[in-house]
């Protein structure tokens, strides 16, 4: 299979991976033929990329860190919490959060088990969701990425749990931000920006009152917008004043936000997001944490279509943690525009004169 931008899809293409609703249920299942009507519907829902079946890329499967069932359960728990918290009925919102720590301890335990059963600690996040799913799926992705970094740092199980629950719930304060501000496509006014920035303190206030949640997990909500040089909010902390959990979550938050489609901009490629993180090293983020993070994230995820410096077009077939920028490429179009008689692969680790120009 290969990942393709929705505006490049021709009617009749076969969907290779399902697309999910905001509550974790399937919107369109794998094997579905994409009609012109379906393509337009997906565009209306904010979907900008899909995975399709392709004879030339048969056997190529994205490296998904989470099992579908694990993500479904996590999405269901997040959806229940967020929708209840956003309810105008304060009593309902409170009643829907009994034993918050127990619920999300169980959710993150399953996420962590999926991550730790992988042969390599290398992030793979390939699920496609509608625009309305962003708030739920973003927190799950941040928890996966943060958990991978926690494992790489050698955290024990209790530390991983504190980090992971903090990552799942770090943005819960966003439920207090008016929908009109969340969905605004243009720049925010100073007043709107002030309302938006209150979500960090609001999230902390919500979580610190939960008797079965670690206060360190609550501090992830409070500090995830602090920056290494002191330019963040709400307290302008700098360097080591920011808890390491919050620093890890901040990096994962920015990476996943940049590589996700939003109502007001297109998604950045993973390589572009990685470049941004390195440029922000020791300014927004601790450079050593950035290096550790980027060594566990693929610049060119499996199934990504790329243009090579030779003029060939190919699809990423395999990645290597020790050479994240030199994957194996399945060539699907030659430089002259012709299709190979038989699909073949080239290993960029062995062809140092060949580079990836860009994703397409």
Structural summary, described in words:
The protein is an alpha+beta fold and 360 residues long. It folds into three domains: 2-57, Molybdopterin biosynthesis moea protein, domain 2, CATH 3.90.105; 68-294, Hypothetical protein af1432 (Orthogonal Bundle), CATH 1.10.3210.10; 305-359, no CATH class. The protein is 41% helix and 11% strand. The chain is built from 13 helices and ten strands. The protein has helices at 36-44, 68-85, 90-95, 100-116, 134-152, 157-169, 179-182, 190-197, 199-208, 215-223, 244-258, 270-279, 287-294, and strands at residues 2-5, 19-20, 26-28, 49-52, 128-129, 305-308, 313-318, 328-333, 344-347, 356-359. Strands 9-8-7-6-10 form a five-stranded antiparallel beta sheet, with no helix packed on it. It has a three-stranded mixed beta sheet with strand order 3-2-5, with no helix packed on it. A hairpin with a 4-residue loop joins strand 6 and strand 7. Helix 2 (68-85) runs antiparallel to helix 4 and helix 9 runs antiparallel to helix 10. The longest helix has 19 residues, at 134-152. The chain starts with a strand and ends with a strand. The relative contact order is 0.11. The model is unreliable at 89-93 (pLDDT under 50). This is HD-GYP domain-containing protein. Residues 113-309 form the HD-GYP domain. Pfam families: HD_5.
